């Protein structure tokens, strides 16, 4: 059976648009609410990235940090995250889910046990922010055995030589970091420049899917339409924080935002 | 796991930067892979370059002021009545602590790589103060990340950083201490690594930072070795080197040159921060058996919960208030080359009282932890045992805390 992540890309391609990927933090602001957000945005998002909150995140900007700290404060544990994924999959079996987080959480859980749990709950892919290539070679192999995509990260600082090596080892989806920034930074390079870098990566192996993330908002998403997929994270976390501050319902507000994002890439 | 002889410990890591196959490494976002690799290439080249070594030594000599004193604490020795207690007064160094060695080397490297800005983290404020001092000396712009809690408790050093023209960026996330300052500094580097050099203030972080820092602070033991031979004619038969351990930069530098000696001749004792006697929180991952985890790019023993969230620490000493520990020390612990223990806040304060009562020396709260254990153990040791404590920081920065905990007398009398 084809990984639902690949199915999502095929579907988006048929509709002549990039896949829309969302990132929300598991347990933000509560277990129940984060599940409800996933359910409600899944109408418009093609792939759901679920953040595993960590309290010393070295690559996240303030919006995602705020969401992560909120979730941790509300008591989220790794097992709860698997439960959220499992419950979501009961509701929407074929919607792909990617867990994104830091390696220590997997390391403490135990790599094998973590992957087994991924299988049991229905996780389709993993992004491990601080486990770069070649350090991730073994773990990526383990993922493959479990039919889970290990998603390699690529950055503007990645040299061409290195890009080729990473792409060679990569699974069908990779993630290109748009610019030198933590998550949610202001887009400091032009969308044109980002697409140029993206095309350079695509040329290495056009069959492999590459999504772009970091700094993408309502305003910029339309200009990056030619990519295989686009990830929006911090803008969504920001909307959750804003809703909570104004005592509004984050589920409705985030849902509206994702709908709007989708409309910009159609 | 084995320590090799004849090879510097900083160079005993494997290809991926792991000591003993499991401590250290490079658990970093992809964006940092290239700048870290660039720094590695530069450092590996320069540390073999005679001209660079000469340049380093010139700045160490003329600007930092080496060697720092090696003195016998006669009165304290008499009072304790056991081993001879000596001190390597590293706080003599320009700026008042060992952090100046690493800061200077990082600025020299930044200059060579053409970077105009240097950033760094700080806990007690010494790493930040020294980096700001060195940056000023070498004409680099400087930004220091510091936890809001530490800014409040280490004001004298904050003032010094600002006076040196550095921007001090308060960090409000998490526990608002060193751990969060390092995270924020690394995040800033992720976003600015094309123009900015990063200096990590201790032997922690991705492998190359551990190596650079250890290489820099080793100046301490290079000096001490000469001083010991001058004083005793040879390396004493019973030598014990006590040092506080937070991230582990001063202790590693204090021990490095003696690594190949048998531990029965030359024992290393690392003293971690045990925190308040009544609190369960501490900053002593080696003493209290914390599990291996990943923090700030490196695998190490680290205080964490079962899920892998890093736990908050507690210590009177901002410089030791860190949940992790250098991969080098994890390696020295597991190869049994060094022994680690902890002193509580109260024990450190008592040791400060005792040392300042008998000697014209005022160790900061960090080395006071080492003094606490050294004094307690010296009582039971023979008179021909040479106990040396690295007094790696000066208590000037702790005035506020000392006055609050011990009263004005202990601040004024020094």
Question: Can you put this structure into words, describing what you see?
Answer:
The mean pLDDT of chain A is 97. Chain A has helices at 4-14, 31-41, 62-73, 78-91, 103-109, 111-121, 137-145, 160-169, 191-204, 218-221, 234-245, 250-265; strands spanning 19-25, 47-51, 97-101, 125-128, 149-150, 152-154, 173-177, 209-213, 229-232. Chain A is built from twelve helices and nine strands. Chain B is α/β, with parallel strands linked by helices and 414 residues long. Chain B has two domains: 18-60 and 98-214, Rossmann fold; 65-96 and 218-412, 3-Layer(aba) Sandwich (Rossmann fold), CATH 3.40.50.1100. Chain B has 16 helices and 14 strands. The N and C termini of chain B lie far apart (46 Å). The relative contact order of chain B is 0.16. The A-B interface holds A 54-61, 65, 69, 72, 77-78, 102-109, 129-135, 152-159, 162, 177, 180-182, 185 and B 16, 25-35, 173-174, 179-180, 183, 186-187, 190-194, 291, 293-297, 304, 306-310.
Name of the CATH superfamily of chain A: Aldolase class I
Radius of gyration of chain B: 20 Å
The total of beta strands of chain A comes to: 9
The main sheet of chain A comes to: 9 strands, parallel
The CATH architecture designation of the largest domain in chain B is 3-Layer(aba) Sandwich
Unreliable stretches covering 5 or more consecutive residues of chain B: none
Q: Which band does the percent of strand residues of chain B land in? A: 15-25%
Over the alpha carbons, how many angstroms does the gyration radius of chain A reach? Answer: 17 Å
Task: Write the SSE topology.
The complex is a heterodimer of chains A (266) and B (414).
Chain A: H1 4-14, E1 19-25, H2 31-41, E2 47-51, H3 62-73, H4 78-91, E3 97-101, H5 103-109, H6 111-121, E4 125-128, H7 137-145, E5 149-150, E6 152-154, H8 160-169, E7 173-177, H9 191-204, E8 209-213, H10 218-221, E9 229-232, H11 234-245, H12 250-265
Parallel strand pairs in A: 1-2, 1-9, 2-3, 3-4, 4-5, 6-7, 7-8, 8-9
Chain B: E1 18-19, E2 23-24, H1 30-46, H2 50-64, E3 69-72, H3 74-80, E4 84-89, H4 99-113, E5 117-122, H5 126-138, E6 141-147, H6 148-153, H7 155-163, E7 167-171, H8 178-192, E8 196-199, H9 207-217, H10 219-232, E9 239-244, H11 249-255, E10 266-275, E11 292-295, E12 298-301, H12 327-334, E13 338-344, H13 345-358, H14 365-378, E14 386-390, H15 399-406, H16 409-412
Parallel strand pairs in B: 4-14, 5-6, 5-8, 6-7, 9-10, 9-14, 10-13
Antiparallel strand pairs in B: 1-2, 3-4, 11-12
Helix pairs in contact in B: 2-4, 4-5, 4-9, 5-7, 9-11, 10-11, 13-14
